[in-house]
Amino acid sequence: MLKRGPLRAAGAMSGTSLDGVDAAMLLTDGHRIMEFGETAYRAYTEAERAVLRAGLGHWPGTPETEAAAEVVEMVHAEVLAGFATADLVGFHGQTLAHDPRGQGTHQAGCGRLLAEALGVPVVWDFRSNDVRMGGEGAPLAPAYHFALAKWIGVRAPVAFLNLGGVGNLTWIDPRHDRPEDPGALLAFDTGPANAPINDLMQARCGLGYDADGALAGQGTVNEPVLQRFAGHRWFTRMPPKSLDRDAFADLQGQVADLSDADACATLTAVAAAAVARGAEHIPTPPERILVTGGGRRNPVMMQMIAAMCDCPVAPVEDAGLDGDMLEAQAFAFLAVRVARGLPTSFPATTGVRAAIGGGQLSDPRRAQTA
Ligand SMILES: Nc1ncnc2c1ncn2[C@@H]1O[C@H](COP(=O)(O)OP(=O)(O)OP(=O)(O)O)[C@@H](O)[C@H]1O
Ligand SMILES: CC(=O)N[C@H]1[C@@H]2OC[C@@H](O2)[C@@H](O)[C@@H]1O[C@H](C)C(=O)O
Predict the structure, then answer these.
(1) Which of 145, 217, 289, 306 could crosslink 160 through cysteines, CB 3.0-4.6 Å?
(2) 210-233 confidence digits (pLDDT tens)
(3) Are 50 and 64 within 8 A, CB to CB?
(4) Which residues fall in a coiled-coil region (predicted)?
(5) Bridge partner residues of 169 (DSSP)
C-alpha cells in the first residue's frame, strides 16, 4: 500500500528524439507540486540508439520491438537505480509507433520487469487506456503543465510548448482550479519539431542534431516547401490531436535537392510554422509561450517561433523551471495521479469523451500486478 499524503515519485522519459533517458524526482500529491528533487540523464549509446531506431514503426511482438524493449528496460533500470528511495516510479517507455485511430499506441518497455529490478512500485502504460476510450493517447503532460502554471503563479493565460522530436502545446487558463474544469486547458501536438532536423543531420552530416541551430543559421528558408507544409490539412484539424514521430517523413524528400544549410533552415522553419499554425486554435492569446524540450536551445528555431507567433516566447528557465527534465517530472506527477485514481487526460487534451485515468501499477511487493 502506498502511504497517504504527498509521495516522492521518480519519473522517467525516453522521448521521440531518441537521445537518452531523463529521470527526475518530484514531491507531489498529484494535485500540487510540493518540491522538485534530484535528476539524472543517461544518453543512449550509438548501438542502443540503432536498436531503438530499428524498432520505430513496429508494433509489439516483433524481434525489433523486443530488442528495443530490452534496451529501454536495461537503461531505465540503470538510470533509476539512483532513485531507490522513491515511493513510486512513473515509467513512460519509448514510443515506437503511434496510430490512435488505427492500430493504437505502443511504448516499448515492461514496467513489471522494471518494478522487479528496482524493488519499487512502477506506474506504466500511460497511454493505451486513453486510446481505448477514444482519445489520442497524447499529449499527457498537460495535467502537469496545469500544476506548473499554479506553481509559478501565473494570473493570465499562458502556454507551455515542448520542442522535442515532435512538438506539443498546452494553453492554460489559470483562473480555473482543476485541470478537468471546462475551459481550463487546450492541448495538442503542433507537428514535427526536432525529429526531421535530426534525421537530416544524421543522413547528411553524420551528426545527431543541429547544435545551437548553427547550420540552419547559415541557410535560407525555401518558401515553396514551407508554404506547402503550412497548408497541410493537419493544421485545419481541430485540436486535440496527436502525431507519430514519422508522420511527416516525406519532408526529407521535399528538401532533398536543397543544400545542407538551406534544407536545415527550411526544416527549422517548418517546426516553427507548425507552432504558429497550431497557435491559431488557442482560445485567447497567452501572456507568453514558455518553451521546454531541446528545441529551446536552438536560437534559430526560437527566433522563428517568436517572429511567426504574435506573443513573447521564452525558455521555461525564465519561470524558474528545468526544461530538460520537465517531461520526466510530468511522468512522476502522472504516476501519483494514477496511484491516487485521478484522471490523467481530458476531453480538451486528448479528445477522450470524459476525463479518465490510465496506466498500470506494478508493485513488486505484491504477488500480483494490479
Ligand atoms: N543545443 C542544441 N541546439 C539545437 N538543438 C538542440 C540542442 N539541444 C537539444 N536539441 C534538440 O533537442 C532534441 C532533444 O529534445 P528533447 O530531449 O526535448 O526531445 P524528446 O524528449 O526526446 O522528444 P519528445 O518530447 O518529442 O518525446 C535533440 O535531439 C536536438 O534535436
Ligand atoms: C505518442 C507519444 O509518445 N507522443 C509524445 C511525442 O513527444 C511529444 C509529443 O509527441 C507528445 O504528444 C508526447 O509526449 C509528451 C510527453 C506528452 O504526452 O505530453
Answers:
(1) 145
(2) 999 999 999 999 999 999 999 999
(3) no
(4) none
(5) 161, 188
For the chain, the 3-state helix, strand and coil shares in percent, each to the nearest 5, are 40, 20, 40
pLDDT value of residue 366: 80
Mean pLDDT, range 272-276, rounded to an integer: 98
Ligand 2 center to residue 188 CA distance, Å?
Answer: 9
**Per the confidence metrics, is the pTM higher than 0.80?**
yes
Give the ligand whose atoms come closest to the C-alpha of residue 292.
1
Rounded CA separation 304/307 (Å): 5
Q: Grid coordinates in use for 43?
A: 544518453
293 is in an annotated binding site: no
18 is in an annotated binding site: yes
Cell numbers found for residue 135: 482519445
Domains identified in the chain and CATH numbers? 7-139+324-362 (3.30.420.40), 142-319 (3.30.420.40)
* Nearest protein Cα to ligand 2, atom 12: 139
Whole-number average pLDDT of the chain:
96
Alpha-helical runs (H) found in 128-194: 128-132, 142-152
Site to substitute for ligand 2 among 16, 92, 127, 136, most atoms within 8 A of C-beta: 16
In this structure, the residues whose C-beta lies within 6 A of any atom of ligand 2 are 15-16, 95, 98, 105, 138-141, 162, 164-166, 168, 189, 242, 327
Query: At residue 3, does pLDDT exceed 90?
Result: no
